[in-house]
Amino acid sequence: MRRSISWIAIAFLWIGSTHVLAGTVPDELKESGVSEHLGGAVVPPDYALVDEAGREVHFSEFFRKGKPVLLTLVYYQCPNLCNFMLNGLVSSLKTLDWTVGNQFEVVSVSIDPSETPDLARRKKEAYLRAYGRSHAEEGWHFLTGSEAQVRKLAEAVGFGYKYDREEKQYAHSAVIPVLTPEGMISRYLYGIEFATADLRMALLEASHGKIGTVVDRLLLFCYRYDPKTRKYSVYLNSLMQLGCGLTVLVFGGYLAVFWRRQRKGAASNV
């Protein structure tokens, strides 16, 4: 039987997809929003967490491979929003020709300190089956941790959450911070499913153009993130510059061929 979305999930789907004035946010949700820490904010790497195998890990370990990281702060027994977001992420990841563990990492951290590594392991197995790509287990990490350690990590990326005792679940936003290989916060992706172009551009941007093809890097030049729509859109100024540049190249090439033929014609008449 399909489970309905709670009022908390509905509220945060709405908040995550629109601009909401602080005064219009319900009091129950004010501690559970997102405060974007862009531009030079670096996630401290020394948080001690526990992976799905029960091994203690430090957050810095996920940046040693020089790849961008998608961070999901969720909880594994969430009855609503977390499942929708992780399901949506898997669906979006399947549309990319890049693979988790190859071009980028995904780190999922439980905000519920009562959850165990065994639960994280079972969650990982389920999502890896849904993702269906080999070797992804090396790049998608499901972690648990103490309240103090997870709260520090959440605060570092501006992710608010609060346990609602009446609903018996956590109130939080549907958002994925995108981190650079150096641990800087590059972008926030909002929602429960992500357009392929937005996900691709966010990863390309976070990697400083080091992943993807020449065409991808060209698209990075032509697209800009629009904070109003929270999506990537064509940047007309860059597109015009690119068009002018291509025009100059084509015209210059034509002139070069024309002048070469002229010289050959003049030489043959001597």
How would you describe the overall organization of this protein?
- There is one protein chain.
- The chain is of the alpha+beta class.
- The chain folds into two domains: 7-232, Glutaredoxin (3-Layer(aba) Sandwich), CATH 3.40.30; 235-270.
- Helix content is 38%, strand content 18%.
- It is built from seven helices and eleven strands.
- The chain has helices spanning 7-17, 81-93, 117-131, 147-156, 196-206, 214-222, 236-269; strands spanning 48-50, 56-58, 69-74, 105-110, 140-143, 161-164, 169-172, 175-179, 185-190, 223-226, 231-234.
- The strands form four sheets. Strands 5-4-3-8-9 form a five-stranded mixed β-sheet.
- Helix 2 (81-93) links the parallel strand 3 (69-74) and strand 4 (105-110).
- The longest helix is centred in the last third of the chain and has 34 residues, at 236-269.
- It is globular and about 85 Å long.
- The relative contact order is 0.16.
